[in-house]
């Protein structure tokens, strides 16, 4: 880490020294102008998006994978295979594409992700996209009484004169994340048809089951281990999500002794609920409640309590912990464990704990230059990036937990996801594609090996590529 800082400082000062020289000699250190190239693929991108909306791909909380997702994955795989890159469809229907570097210098491995499933929370079969060209600013009346207007959606004001896409009102639109998938596939097409584009090693993964919180479950079936990663599943133009909650679920199980309470003193009967309630109250302090948490402040919630096997002698407490800082969650766990130990002693019961990590803050291990790269890639597409934090989890945060490496989430133009009034800004989707294109040559120009691999922490050790250290 220290060496790395030293080197980057050194490289930065050399660059500062060289920049005026380059300008003086008329040599500009600029990246290729992607504007014309991006514009060429704009209609293709939109066509592809509209095609994908007709493909039902809803995930389901109670199924490993739905038949609709399997069909979608197979079609996408077949389409991507025509580009001729190394493409893999895994056992659990992850689509993975790898493109080797075509430059001679070392570059970080650049990764892009998106998801092809759509939410099961709202009608999503037989989607009929409604394309509105040159939007006139009037309220948009959809079937079933759904209306889109400036009151409910102020961002629409910026769409006057532009192209937007809605559903017909009987379903969602599925821009979440058909927009991201359209961007990925169009990017692959662009790379195939323009072999002159300079790029380092690229890894692209398109996952199932994101909308049921399981997009990273079988990621290890793919070799997706980028140094610099971006997830294409964000919303408004320019939005880049750079941090999110760490999330853990902690189960405490209070185990008493079964028997009859009338002879508890003699038969050792121990009801579990008094100690369970005491533990619940003491570990879910008022100041930690979700309703008292805003901004970057986390929370600890007693989510629910269960009676186990219908017995008074066994009680389960389910806590949910959310914080941008893992240290806060760890401090809560230390505190709760101390309380659990003393309550167990006081009431002569057993208290057992189980911890489940749910997702992780991507900021905990992000490539040090991810922000600067996103900034430049956006600016070159005429987009002003707004870096924001998310009080929730993202695909990137689920991948973070599994791979130990974070990714920023990039806007895609999808709006109002999981809603009958979901819509898409065609321009924002196009800008997102353009940003992705810019990211490719920004990464290729970095001329440095994968720094993050050497910084990856504990649980990520298994995933570090051989030879990377
Ligand atoms: Zn999504």
Please provide a brief summary of the model.
This protein is of the alpha+beta class.
Corresponding CATH architecture of the largest domain: 3-Layer(aba) Sandwich
Instruction: Give the overall silhouette.
Output: elongated
In order across it, which strands form the biggest sheet? Answer: 1-2-8-3-9-16-10-15
How many domain regions? 2
Overall CATH class of the largest domain: Alpha Beta
Q: State the end-to-end distance.
A: 13 Å
SSE string: HHHEEEEEEEHEEEEHHEEHEHEHEEEHH
Helix content: 25-40%
- Strand-residue proportion: 15-25%
Q: Using the coordinates shown, work out and report the CATH topology of the largest domain.
A: Aminopeptidase
Q: So how many helices?
A: 11
Tell me the major beta sheet: 8 strands, mixed
Distinct ligand kinds: zinc ion
Pairing-aware structural class of the strands and helices? alpha+beta
Unreliable sequence segments? 1-29, 451-469
């Amino acid at each position: 880490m220290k060496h790395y800082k030293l080197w980057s400082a050194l490289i930065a000062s050399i660059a500062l020294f060289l920049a005026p020289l380059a300008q003086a000699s008329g040599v500009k250190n600029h990246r290729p102008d992607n504007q014309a190239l991006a514009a060429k693929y704009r209609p293709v991108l939109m066509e592809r998006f509209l095609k994908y909306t007709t493909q039902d791909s809803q995930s389901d909380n109670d199924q490993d994978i739905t038949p609709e997702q399997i069909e979608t994955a197979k079609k996408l795989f077949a389409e991507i295979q025509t580009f001729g890159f190394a493409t893999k469809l895994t056992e659990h229907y992850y689509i993975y594409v790898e493109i080797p570097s075509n430059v001679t210098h070392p570059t970080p491995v650049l990764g892009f992700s998106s998801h092809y499933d759509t939410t099961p929370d709202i009608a999503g079969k037989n989607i009929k996209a409604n394309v509105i060209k040159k939007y006139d600013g009037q309220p948009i009346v959809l079937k079933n009484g759904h209306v889109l207007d400036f009151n409910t959606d102020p961002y629409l004001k910026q769409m006057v004169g532009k192209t937007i896409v809605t559903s017909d009102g009987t379903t969602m639109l599925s821009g979440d994340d058909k927009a991201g998938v359209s961007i990925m596939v169009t990017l692959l097409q662009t790379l195939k048809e323009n072999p002159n584009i300079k790029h380092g090693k690229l890894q692209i993964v398109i996952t199932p089951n994101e909308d049921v919180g399981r997009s990273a479950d079988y990621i290890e079936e793919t070799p997706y281990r980028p140094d610099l990663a971006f997830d294409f599943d964000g919303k408004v133009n320019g939005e880049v999500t750079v941090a999110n909650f760490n999330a853990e679920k902690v189960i405490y199980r209070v185990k008493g002794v079964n028997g009859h309470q009338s002879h508890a003193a003699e038969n050792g009967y121990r009801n579990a609920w008094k100690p369970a309630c005491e533990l619940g109250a003491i570990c879910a302090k008022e100041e930690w409640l979700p309703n008292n948490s805003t901004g970057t402040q986390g929370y600890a919630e007693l989510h629910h309590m269960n009676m186990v096997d219908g017995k008074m002698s066994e009680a389960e407490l389910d806590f949910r912990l959310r914080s941008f800082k893992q240290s806060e969650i760890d401090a809560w766990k230390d505190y709760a464990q101390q309380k659990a130990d003393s309550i167990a002693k006081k009431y002569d019961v057993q208290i057992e704990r189980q911890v489940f990590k749910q997702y992780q803050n991507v900021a905990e291990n992000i490539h040090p230059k991810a922000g600067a790269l996103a900034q430049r890639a956006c600016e070159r597409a005429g987009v002003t990036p707004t870096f924001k934090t998310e009080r929730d989890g993202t695909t990137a945060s689920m991948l973070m937990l599994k791979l130990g490496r974070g990714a920023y989430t990039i806007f895609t133009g999808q709006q109002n996801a999981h809603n009958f009034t979901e819509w898409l800004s065609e321009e924002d989707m196009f800008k997102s594609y353009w940003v992705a294109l810019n990211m490719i040559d920004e990464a290729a120009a970095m001329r440095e090996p994968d720094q993050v691999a050497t910084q990856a922490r504990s649980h990520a050790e298994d995933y570090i590529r051989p030879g990377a250290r």
